[in-house]
Amino acid sequence: MVSVIGGDDSIRLLPLLDADLIRAHPKAFVGYSDSTVTLMQFLKAGVMAYHGPAVLTDLAENGGIHPFTRRGLEQAFGTEPYDLSPAPEWTEAGQDWEDVAAQEIRREFQPGDGWTWLQGDAPGEGHLLGGCVEILDMLSGTPGELPPELWHGAVMALETSEDVPSPAQVGYWLRNWAAKGVLQRLSGLLLARPRDYTPEMTAQLYVWVRRVLKEAGREDLPVVANVDFGHTSPQLTLPLGAQVRLDPVAGRVTVWP
User: Where are the domains of the chain?
Assistant: First the structure.
């Protein structure tokens, strides 16, 4: 199953999603953004879910699916360990899905800018959890929220949407997780390239992340930012529930699907 596109109302599905049914009839579900709601319910049911491209945003890419996106899907659905890698190019340009003539015109991409390791001197390893930060916050206090114990030992992956939450707002959400005791239990943190951020906003985001982690006593936590997943193209597919290892010294992120 693949999400067609995101939105803002998947939370209305919560009364209709049966964890026992998901567990008894597991399917592979791929999506991101608002689909974080469904991804979390799969994880609560003990079924691996895939934070990755939707149909209209990357799979139906004008000019054909990007090789980086294709490779990320193939790796995530494979059986061998693999290293994540930075995209060679990226874009935030939109696509005109109604213009048939434009379907063969490739979007304009810019050279890849690599990852940024924010902190950490030792590797961290754990099961991968996360999604769109706005949707995870929307789930807070609802039956769809991941219980704190599922975060114990996890590597958290967070991405921001085209709503462009401010760096301070992201910091406030991180403080919320610190108040719940989540940050204190993590093994690592993956931050996506923030959608529509200026360089100044990105710098402020990194200040906030380090500030909140220091407040939580987690200056040791390995953190890598500007990773190619979420609201960016091309994007990686993250197999949520799989094991992942962050090695800040080697600059490697290894996944065991």
Answer: 10-256
pTM above 0.85, yes or no: yes
- At the second CATH level, the architecture of 10-256 is 3-Layer(bba) Sandwich (3.50)
Distances (CA, A) of 171 to 27, 62, 211: 34, 35, 8
- β-bridge partners, 238: 51
Residues of the chain above pLDDT 70, percent: 100
- When pLDDT is averaged across residues 168-189 and rounded to a whole number, the result is 97
* Distance separating alpha carbons of residues 219 and 183, to the nearest angstrom: 11
Q: What are 191's two structure tokens?
A: 């931050």
Distance CA 71, CA 115 (A): 18
Distances (CA, A) of 101 to 63, 95, 105: 11, 12, 8
**Three-class DSSP category at 73:** helix
